[in-house]
Amino acid sequence: MSRNIDKMINEFNDKYFPGWREWENIYYSNAVAGEAGELCNVVKKSIGGGTKHDLRSPAEFDRDIKEEIADMAIYLHIFALKLGTKLDALIRLKMKELERRMNERRKVK
Predict the structure, then answer these.
(1) CA dist., res. 39 & res. 56, Å (int)
(2) pTM beyond 0.90, yes or no
(3) How many structural domains comprise the chain?
């Protein structure tokens, strides 16, 4: 993620949620879980699950799904900042670990 996004998120949170850096980790983990639940609900409804009364168009579902993904990404980004790191750094490390694991699995077979 770029410095511009860091700055945007920090300024937004400082303005609307003073003290956000001191909040307990459970707030961030629960926020991510809540947004994941909302994403799952929108996806479920987009394929006809749940209610038959949802009249959103495919384009509206697509928009809503993207918004929920963005909500999750924002909370994850904030959580990483609070922990003193950056989300993209965590993703890079995890991708390296996944690459190592996949290469190990290929050697075993």
Answers:
(1) 15
(2) no
(3) 1
For the chain, the C-alpha Rg in angstroms (whole number) is: 18
| Structural domain that includes position 42 | 3-108
pLDDT tens digits along 29-61: 999 999 999 999 999 999 887 666 678 888 999
List helix spans (H) across 1-109.
3-16, 25-46, 58-82, 87-108
Q: At 109, is the secondary structure helix, strand, or coil?
A: coil
Give the integer Cα–Cα distance in Å for 76 and 69. 11
67: left (phi over 0), alpha (psi -120 to 50) or beta: alpha
Query: What is the Cα–Cα distance from 79 to 23, expressed in whole angstroms?
Result: 10
> Which CATH number goes with the domain that contains 7?
1.10.287
Task: Quote the Cα angle for 101-106-109, to 5°.
Answer: 130
DSSP for residue 56: -
